[in-house]
Write a structure and sequence with these properties.
Blueprint (H helix, E strand, L loop, with lengths): L9 E8 L11 E8 L3 E8 L2 E10 L3 E6 L11 E8 L2 E8 L3 H17 L7 E2 L4 E2 L4 E2 L13 E2 L9 H5 L2 E3 L11 E4 L18 E6 L6 E4 L5 E4 L4
Antiparallel strand pairs: 1-2, 1-7, 2-3, 3-4, 5-6, 6-7, 8-11, 9-10, 12-13, 13-14, 14-15, 15-16
GO biological process, one term: intracellular signal transduction
InterPro entries: PH-like_dom_sf, PH_domain, SH3-like_dom_sf, SH3_domain, Znf_Btk_motif
Protein name: Tyrosine protein kinase
């Protein structure tokens, strides 16, 4: 993993499959630098030692799917993640080949996290397999329509993916009146987040909720003044 500046949340050198936006484009794989910040997932050409020219960027608020691809489903490759996004009214799928399963998990978690903060509209289902041109169908469900709805619940619907967060819930502190504009909560359980960027909760500590407009992620401030997000469950 490459070092990155304060604006970049994650930066890695991985493989990208061509998206065939143009009919003359051959399907192939190219090494790219992938960078995510709070607004875009961008990719650059270059070498493992040096980043080159930007080749493309995807707006996080336009992303609809961030999921794993079944191992060996895409050209017999493993550790592949897929990103379905919208661009100029058309939907495209970006396939990224990570070096390890851990790297794939990190990228999926980070992209989802940032997309949720941008209120991205995630699909409720996705295809864990790929649509193959030779078979003219999806490997995961035999759907012959390339634009057919997904056959598996996406992470936004899979409640089993956030078991720790479901039990680590802040509750409204009794010292705060209902008429107060402040939203102060106290943690009733300790909680260590999966992502170090998220808020760690400590039993008995108070947290001021600064933004609860997103049902999946709230922005809170600790007594020490640190601001971070966490997954609420009421």
């Amino acid at each position: 993993m490459s070092q990155h500046n304060n604006c970049e949340l994650l930066c890695d050198f991985m493989k990208k499959r061509s998206q065939n936006k143009k009919t003359i484009t051959r399907q192939c794989y190219k090494n790219r630098w992938f960078v995510i910040d709070s607004n875009f997932l961008s990719y650059y050409d270059g070498t493992p030692m040096k980043r080159g020219t930007k080749k493309g960027a995807i707006s996080l608020e336009k992303i609809h799917v961030v999921e794993e691809v079944e191992n060996l489903s895409l050209d017999q490759l493993i550790n592949v993640l897929q990103i379905v996004y919208e661009e100029y009214g058309e939907c495209y799928t970006l396939y990224i080949v990570a070096d390890t399963s851990k790297q794939r998990e990190t990228w999926i978690s980070t992209i989802r996290h940032e997309c949720l903060k941008k209120n991205a509209s995630f699909y409720l289902k996705y295809h864990p397999g790929v649509w193959t041109k030779s078979l003219k169908k999806y490997k995961c469900c035999d759907q012959i329509d390339r634009n057919a709805p997904g056959c598996k619940l996406s992470f936004i619907e899979r409640h089993d993916e956030v078991p720790a967060r479901l039990n680590k819930v802040p509750t409204r502190h009794p010292d705060v009146s209902e008429s107060s504009n402040e939203k102060i909560y106290v943690a009733i359980y300790d909680y260590s987040p999966y992502d170090k960027q998220d808020l760690q909760l400590t039993t008995g500590e108070r947290y001021e909720i600064l933004n609860d407009s997103n049902e999946h992620w709230w922005l809170a401030r600790t007594n020490e003044g640190r601001k971070a997000t966490f997954h609420p469950t009421m």
